[in-house]
């Protein structure tokens, strides 16, 4: 049997679940690099997923702690949509994926890993990125560290 070693992942696998809202905590902390928070605007923000489905997996969330989609204000909706579009464009330039999944899981039964604060997923995809690893061994190999990717994306988000 072949093994692929990725020892940097052990710190994520062993993380203890935090109490409270992970999105609100990251936003309020002002330690953007530590929390992989890439960009903020008046109503929403972009944060990297530390348990990504794929390299470059970003999440866009409203600043306000809200779980119900229909309770978003028009301003929050527009802000989120603008940041989804910006995330898409930045990922396209930096990672050059072949395609994207962009979506929202509302409620635990819909697949939301954290259902108490709604957030949109922007996931870059490449031809063949779903191979035998996730299917046979329930393992996903990420080709880039979160810190390296954070630096590249942060720099690109700051451009006008």
Describe the model:
It contains 6 helices and 5 strands; from the N terminus they run αααβββαββαα. By secondary structure, it is α+β, with helices and mostly antiparallel strands. It has one domain: HIT family, subunit A, CATH 3.30.428. The protein has a 5-stranded antiparallel sheet with strand order 1-2-3-5-4, sandwiched between helices. The longest helix is centred in the middle third of the chain and has 22 residues, at 74-95.
Write down the overall mean pLDDT.
85
Count of domain modules: 1
The number of strands is 5
Helix and strand content put the structural class at: alpha+beta
Shape estimate: globular
| Helix content percent band | 25-40%
Quick overview:
The chain has about 160 residues and is α+β, with helices and mostly antiparallel strands. The chain has 6 helices and 5 strands; from the N terminus they run H-H-H-E-E-E-H-E-E-H-H. The radius of gyration is 16 Å and the shape is globular.
SSE layout:
Elements: H1 10-13, H2 22-29, H3 32-35, E1 37-40, E2 44-48, E3 58-62, H4 74-95, E4 99-104, E5 120-125, H5 132-137, H6 146-157
Antiparallel strand pairs: 1-2, 2-3, 3-5, 4-5
Helix pairs in contact: 4-6
Features:
single chain, 160 residues, alpha+beta, HIT family, subunit A, five-stranded antiparallel sheet, globular
